[in-house]
Amino acid sequence: MTPRTMDDAAKVLADPTAYADDARLHAALAHLRANEPVAWVDNPPYRPFWAITKHADIMAIERANDLFLSEPRPLLATAAADDYMAAQMEAGMGIRTLIHMDDPHHRKVRAIGADWFRPKAMRDLKIRVDELARRYVDRMRDIGPECDFVTDIAVQFPLYVIMSLLGLPEEDYGRMHSLTQEMFGGDDDEYKRGVSPEDQMAVLLDFFTYFAKLTASRRENPTDDLASAIANGKIDGEPMSDIDTASYYVIVASAGHDTTKDAISGGLLALIENQDELARLRDNLDLMPTAVEEMIRWTTPVKEFMRTAAEDTTVRGVPIAKGENVYLAYVSGNRDEEIFDEPFRFDIARDPNRHVSFGYGVHFCLGAALARMEMNSLFTELVPRLESIELTGEPELAATTFVGGLKHLPIRYSLR
Ligand code: HEM
């Protein structure tokens, strides 16, 4: 193997605290895009990987899903956590969601829930989502003139939507909320249950126990919701395994919640920090679809996914050996100067906006249309009613390498 040197900037990608410091993260990524777009990162306690920071390379790797596989390392975790998960998998107890799978199995499992995220299902759900958006903006008015927008509003609304789609009872929403935070905020002191892989596994087991009961009940009494579609889903004519079933709920409940919360709260912060853009949106609500897209690019709630090379190959001329991992730096792809005009400008009318926040290719976010609709409903309700809005403290980002955004957004506002 050729000797490898590591650019200091590359280390930040394997440093959770860097993700809580936008300036530090973006400075390092801009440096890598310009100087070492395929960079070797060896920063324990993580196993080494190649950081891919150019938009075109991220897309090309995602497109080549036979060459760059999701198994066995779909995302960045510590070596100890990777080993623990592998041992659990060997023992038949591991989580295996869509993001862990490769085709052809992935395609079959994805098809089970896919209808619930298509445009027709979205149209049916829109009335409910609009209703919830109004409810949360009313709540914001009622608790005003100050609130923590993240904990009071942005966390609640998408959770409510996804739980409605799944068909879960309202009294369970709180429990789902803390479980998703514990799962995704693995590195952040405010969210984590504990540092060890065993602690993280305990979170998963709690999810599994809850969903095992749900599966049994939906198999006995199917209802018209996504939970029933998952519980009764078949692969090649056979019911899904217990692990695949439970994993499906886990991915929908978790992916459908924290991600959208991050895009909503980071989107509002961008509007507060760019009052001219807020005024422009208020005066022209037709810009809402491009504004939502820009918020999703701007915030990039999912920081990364990883792939493993199935064969020796190259990226941008750099040799990648079979079995090595590539880290797809979505945050970097979304600020790539070669793709975006003035990437560091928040422009609610940006068009085209070929961001990679939802990934690309066969794993393209299943809930993208839902996330867009939720954000559209919420901001369409909020923006025209907002007479003024300002920060009352420092917004705080979560220290996590995977899914993350604002933990707190203290604001003062006047709302009709
Ligand atoms: C702004 C909000 C969201 C963002 C930024 C986001 C981002 C992503 C990304 C980057 C991926 C991986 C794509 C890839 O590997 O190419 C993904 C996959 C996925 N997302 Fe989302 N997501 C969001 C909202 C949602 C919602 C609301 C749901 C609803 C359930 C959802 C469900 C999923 C599922 C099930 C997958 C796995 C798809 C697969 O592997 O085939 N996401 N998402």
UniProtKB/TrEMBL annotation:
Gene Ontology MF annotations: cholest-4-en-3-one 26-monooxygenase activity; heme binding; iron ion binding; steroid hydroxylase activity
Record keyword Ribonucleoprotein present: no
Requisite cofactors: heme
GO BP terms in the entry: cholesterol catabolic process
Tree of life domain: Bacteria
Coiled coil: none
Keywords: Cholesterol metabolism, Heme, Iron, Lipid degradation, Lipid metabolism, Metal-binding, Monooxygenase, Oxidoreductase, Steroid metabolism, Sterol metabolism
A Pfam family of this chain: p450
Transmembrane region(s): none
Pathway: Steroid metabolism; cholesterol degradation
InterPro entries: Cyt_P450 (IPR001128), Cyt_P450_B (IPR002397), Cyt_P450_CS (IPR017972), Cyt_P450_sf (IPR036396)
Gene3D superfamilies: Cytochrome P450 (1.10.630.10)
Presence of keyword Lipid metabolism: yes
Family indicated by similarity: Belongs to the cytochrome P450 family.
UniProt protein name: Steroid C26-monooxygenase
Record lineage: Bacteria, Bacillati, Actinomycetota, Actinomycetes, Mycobacteriales
